[in-house]
Amino acid sequence: MAKKKATAASIESDLREYAMRYPETHEDFPWGERAIKVKGKAFIFMRATESEISLSVKLPQSRDMAIDLPWAEPTHYGLGKHGWVTAKLDPKDAPIDLIKAWIDESFRAVAPKTLLKKMDAS
User: Taking the CB of residue 8, how many other CB atoms lie within 10 A of it?
Assistant: First the structure.
């Protein structure tokens, strides 16, 4: 059986599911964009169009490496100077494993330290 072709919407759905597995997360839709938050603080903003997935995450450790990629840049509105990176991905070659690692880094950058200690202890 042939593997189903990934679309921007299917990748967004997979990344949403991945992000929502973290404890105490919920989603919100400010400005019409999906925001996944922990304890009220966003750790990923994401949206999909017909041909692209756009997402922003906070990357305090890997920001410099991330913005060297041709499809990533510091997030606008002054967020880039605080470690936020925006990636615009083509669904045909989106590096899903890398993006999941970024989601993890962003969650850990934003989540309360007490929640991280509880999470890492279990």
Answer: 20
Rounded Cα gap, residues 4 and 6, in angstroms: 6
Q: What domains lie within the chain, and their CATH numbers?
A: 8-110 (3.90.1150.30)
Residue 61: which residues within 8 A CB-CB, separation 6 or more? 105
Q: Give ∠ CA 76-34-83 in degrees, rounded to 5.
A: 35
* Burial class of residue 39 (count of CB atoms within 10 Å of its CB; 0-12, 13-18, 19+): middle
pLDDT digits (tens, 9 = 90+) for 30-72: 888 899 999 999 999 999 998 999 999 999 999 999 999 999 9
Number of CB atoms found within 10 A of residue 25's CB: 16
Decide: 45 and 34 in contact? Cβ < 8 Å.
yes
The Cα–Cα gap between 41 and 86 comes to 17
H/E segment holding residue 111: none
